[in-house]
Write a structure and sequence with these properties.
The structure holds two protein chains of two kinds. By secondary structure, chain A is of the alpha+beta class. Chain A has one domain: SH3 type barrels, CATH 2.30.30. The two termini of chain A are 12 Å apart. Chain B folds into three domains: 235 residues, P-loop containing nucleotide triphosphate hydrolases (Rossmann fold), CATH 3.40.50.300; 53 residues, no CATH class; 270 residues, no CATH class. In chain B, the strands form three sheets. In chain B, strands 1, 2, 3, 4, 5, 6, 8 and 9 form an eight-stranded mixed sheet that branches. Chain B has a three-stranded antiparallel sheet with strand order 12-11-13. Chain B is elongated, with a radius of gyration of 29 Å. The N and C termini of chain B lie far apart (82 Å). Classes of the chains: A alpha+beta, B alpha/beta. At the A-B interface, helix 1, strand 2, strand 4 and helix 2 of A face helix 3, helix 10, helix 16 and strand 14 of B. Strand 4 of chain A pairs antiparallel with strand 14 of chain B.
Amino acid sequence: MKLSSIRRGSRVQIHQLPVGESRSQFIRIGLMEGAIIECLERLPGGTLVIGQSRQEFALSANLADSITVMPV
Amino acid sequence: MNSNVGHQPHKHLGANKLTADPVLPKIVLVGNPNVGKSVVFNFLSGVYVDVSNFPGTTVEISKASYLHYELYDTPGIYGISSFNDEERVARDIILGGDIIINIVDAVHLERDLFLTQQLIDMGKRVGLVVNMMDEAEKQGIGIDLKKLEERLGVPVIGTVAVKKRGLDAIHELIVQAREGKQKASLHKELHNMLSQVGSQSEALMVLESDLAVAERHGIEPSPESRREELYIDRRNRVNAILTEVVTDLSTKKRLSTRVGRLAVSPIFGIPFLLVTLYVMYLFVGVFVAGDVVDYTENTIGKNIVEFYMKSFVAQNAATDLTITRLDDEGEEIGSQEYAFPEGTNADKTLWTVAQQYRSEGPSEYSFQFRNPILVVFFGEFGAITMTFTYLLFLLLPLVVGFYMSLSILEDSGYLPRLATLVDRLLRNIGLNGRAVIPIILGFGCVTMATITTRLLNTQREKTIATTILQLAIPCSAQLGVIAALLATAGFVPTLVYAGIIFTFLVTVGSILNNRLPGEASPLLLDLPPMRLPRLNNVVTKTAYKTYFFMREAAPWFFIGALAVSILQVTGSLIFIQDALEPIVVWWLKLPKEASTAFVMGLVRRDFGAAGLYMMELTPGQIIAALTTITLFVPCIASLMVMFKERGVKEGVIIWSGSFILALLIGGIVAQIVV
């Protein structure tokens, strides 16, 4: 399923990152395929706040739409 | 140093290339955004800092000398590659550096060590500063610096830079900086490339698919998949180090984390955002723009500094002096004219009389120099006198106020959350959350905001943001007069006016978003924990940003004032006013004097609005006039800065678009409501 469709509070594993430049940027900050992340907040319009260990990131809806995740 | 694992550090031919030059060895400070790099830079650099744009970019680079080294600061980056201008600039400075001092945030080692490891993989001599150790301690994060040093193979120190704690050790760190531990296979691969590229660091860039570096050596960069492979491997190495070095002792969620979460939750986040903006408005909009500027501009600027400048010139130059006495309400109660055909020194008695009359109470004055050159520099819109007052006594307090608010938001960690909250909204007009910064600044000074559009990711976003700023965002100088006029018109006209401007802004943004190829770049923001802003940080950031802005914008304000003064002396100003008159009367349904107000808006946008304040207007006319003047062309200084940032062609398109649209929309409004 897509990262954009997960609910607030759920924990998922990153299955597939988008191709292209943003992929390298994700990997750089530690959001790699296989990483476990938690959806901390969903804003109206789909902007997501996700957490990975102590780090928190905001990502826009279209970016979340390009990432597929698996339930853990 | 433990060197029995992996690669044995040694000198490289490539790495020595720069030290062989007669120039001083280069120390480069590198780090993620907001890790305290500039505090370290200031600590090392002392007073003499040379700030300049990196060639071909708008990225600013600070350079200073330290002992027998050249010291460079670089923009905050998450890694070395070419994802944006900052990274490209940092990459080139790092490639040319001899010693890299990498500053990381103790609370954010997960994020920051990727860059550290990348610097080590480049084969550079690295020294690591783990900053904000106190913050980590507060959050219950334990960091074993000894172990970190051992695992990375480079010297490590812990500091609290803002409190100057541990900073003395940096001198030793620079001496001790060395090549760290690298993966043997990667190191070998890089060395095999040395015949094609200059150095191990450049080899790594080519291997990580950096087009520009590959092109410099006339070779093909590795495919992107290779870069990803290397990134994943590096990330894994960093994660392995982290598990050994960092112990998280915190058992419960910290307050800062909770506040940070609340700030982006839909229920609390949006009211919190509104309250924040309101407090900022009270501070900058009411206190600074109102009380402070009123005092600095009129009392200090006009009545003391500018008066003495002009009277100094008048000592030996033919001039007339008009002094208008005012009552406490600012109404005129009397006026005297004094003629000094040979300058004031030639008629000291009359000068004393004039001074006496002026000192009896509140007053205004005006020197009418007879020599047109003096008028250009010291007259009503004198390029020297007006620039001086405007920059130091009107703009400076405002810019300080805005940058201080922004620094507080930034240092507290709220700024990225603000960007998160508005991301979806701004996406409608082709921008992403980041654009909230120039838009907020625009309500202070459009010139300052136009310069800030640099932080946006793409040219497309810079174009859209600049257009919106120049067309539809009224700056604070203008807002003051607009608010006063709207107060006389009433509540409903105020709503109508705000509605028109907002609709216009959204429409222009949407049209640009649809017409320009591409789409808003995606937002991927790191949200640091929230904390109470540190006074020291806020003061330093405010001072730096203000200084850079003043340095950058001051010449343009001077040139703007000079241009208008020349227009005035040559009679062109009158000509433009006459040309605009029919449009103003027939199309905008305003008194003919309003054309003067529009032309004055070219000099300073508030002059334009202030001109309208003097006229008797109906509420309908006020709406039409304010709509036109808000959308009307920006002041000359921001036009100049726009030319510089966006190029002359795009600048001219935006400027003429603003001219035409202001008259068009203002006219349509006038036809409906007047």
